[in-house]
Amino acid sequence: MLASRACSGGRFFYIENCIRFLSPKALPQREFWQAGAELVGEGGVEADGEVIALALECLERAGLAGAKVDLGSIPVFRKTVEQFKITNYEGLRRAVSTKSIGDLRGIATEERAMEVLAYMMEERGGPDLLAKLTEMGVRGLEEDMRYFEELFDVLKSYGYASNVRIDLSTLREMKYYNGIVFEIFLEGIGLPIGGGGRYDAMMKEFGLDVSAAGFAVSVDLLVKAAEGISYGRSPPLQIYYAEGYRERAIGLARRLRGKGMSCTVSRYRGEREGILVDRTIIDLRSGKVLEGQL
Amino acid sequence: MRGLILAVPNKGRLRGPTMELLERANIRPLDDDRIYLSNTTLEGVQLLSIRAADIPIYVYYGIADLGITGKDVVAESGLEVYELADTGFGDCNLVVAVKSDSKYWDPSVLPQGTKVATEFPNLTKQFFNDLGIQVEIITLRGAVEIAPILGLADCVVDLSSTGRTLERNGLRAIGTILRSTAKLICNKVAYKTRHEQIKMLENLLVRNK
Prior knowledge:
A: BirA Bifunctional Protein, domain 2, Rossmann fold, 2 domains, seven-stranded mixed β-sheet, B: D-Maltodextrin-Binding Protein, domain 2, six-stranded mixed β-sheet
């Protein structure tokens, strides 16, 4: 869908049901709702910053302020893997993303590789993590470090720098990511609520030589996280009418809806909440006459 | 904010050493052991006593923040949880075993269509897939060792720590799928949102091991 519309790039969003093969472990359902946005045709740090900021802003608008983002980097991970000549890429990805020192031992045999990878798994923080890795002997990270510094600058402009941290063990399962990757989480929700990253390489698979980055959030988790948020919306006003006053009640409901108030209209059967349209208009709970006030 | 919930095995071979580990960290349940969720002598920490094999599920969904359970069941569940530390106990191997008089000496030479009885269908399937051998998996809930003698299966994939149970049932291990010990596992989001509390409990448990 994206590839067919994205020839010249653009900004897209979707709220769709997704169908994916998931092996029947703990999550047996194969269809789920996902909401996401993609920025196609623009690369670089500005675009990555925009995507992350948009994800956080969307959550904030949904009443879920304070979401946190952990950033990882596929290039940094790859450079480390290549430098230490580790061949079991998938095994290593799994060991690092589960922070399992035990599994790491079976994959990285060199002492220095162990030290570097353990550091990547343990520490979370700012761009200085990369300086430390350089100090530990990982080569060629200068560009990545500048990139992260700039990214934090961009995020600062959006007002989200303090929500974001680098955790180099963040490696998304999807193999198409080739730049930064990130996961979004909220206190009290046990699974990451969403995530995303840069996937320029995937667009090439569709014959498009364009940059792309995006994010998605799980609608199910979003709903769960939003439980208990009232969104300031009050229940609809119940308007009842006495015999012969239906037309007047419907007219009143129309006028109130026009002002943005939601209401329902039905025949009066002795209810004690809402308002009654009779010769005059009465608040059923207090018994006060409201004529002229609505 | 609620306290931390630590899931521990309610029975089985890991129960004893887990409770000893907690004892050494001065964490004792306040309720009797029929209560699944119990407060402890450590303020802000609750113990959830459930089946060892269910612990990865509770931790994955964040119902429990942390758990102590075998690497074998974590791997079998296939769920992504952080493995913060090795507890140093619960050592055992997940092995492929055949009847003692079998002509097969290595899993890679087992024929296509071999019937394998196991409590670990996912790991078994993955292991034989990697060897390029299609096997028929018979999932059992225990006493797996008896299956070959009675003719239910050609071989078993089962846990073995000393090899004695295998031997007693006329079986011989011909390969190891996984080496397992009990791990301290952690929910991914809890690790990030409640890092200090979790690190505190981790230090308390692992430093005292």
